[in-house]
Design goal:
seven-stranded mixed beta sheet, Rossmann fold, single chain, alpha/beta, 2 domains, globular, 7 strands, 23% strand
């Protein structure tokens, strides 16, 4: 199997990045993490890129032409697939167009419910019974692309935002690689 060069976009802790790196080291996994793009200089996730010797770049999204730097590096590293793993910036229409059906995102809710931010507090306010995560294709509407994999769990009455986040992340670590395998199995 020839692995596809993939880029992971992050903004924070990088636990999903670490998980994807670990999976990408398996011979049968369809992608190789060849680049990490981050928009937060304080993101702890960059440590995983350093540890595993994966090239990484910072993009300052305050600058008008920051996307040119992204596109340049995606081309430079021959990237054919993009994973958004806690990237807290909306992807432009231009980038989505260039990578049509080649960008996926992991979201900490059962989409289409609770798109956007503050998913756990919103779930608790609505007294939801179930929570989980969704891996989906990225399109021009926020958290609205076709779902690839969903994982669910029941919310316990004692669960708070912190516990929901932990439970959701454990499911994300299964859902993200599963979605990638599913995509490339169907190609």
């Amino acid at each position: 199997m020839v692995k596809k060069n993939a880029c992971v976009f992050i903004s924070g802790q990088g636990s999903n990045l670490k998980n994807l790196i670990n999976h990408s080291r398996d011979k049968g996994f369809p992608i190789r993490i060849s680049l990490v793009i981050c928009n937060n200089k304080l993101a702890k996730g960059i440590e995983y890129a350093k540890k595993f010797r994966i090239p990484y770049i910072f993009v300052d999204t305050q600058f008008k032409n920051y996307e040119n730097k992204i596109l340049y590096n995606l081309k430079k590293y021959n990237i054919s697939f993009i994973c958004l793993a806690g990237y807290m910036k909306i992807i432009s229409k231009n980038l989505i167009k260039k990578y049509q059906n080649k960008i996926i995102n992991i979201h900490p809710s059962l989409l289409p419910k609770y798109k956007g931010l503050n998913t756990f507090s919103r779930m608790l306010k609505k007294s939801e019974k179930k929570a989980g995560c969704t891996v989906h294709f990225v399109n021009e509407k926020l958290d609205s692309g076709n779902s690839i994999v969903k994982k669910t769990f029941f919310i316990n009455t004692k669960d708070d935002e912190h516990i929901l986040k932990k439970k959701t992340q454990l499911l994300e670590y299964k859902a993200f690689p599963e979605a990638i395998i599913k995509i490339f199995r169907n190609v």
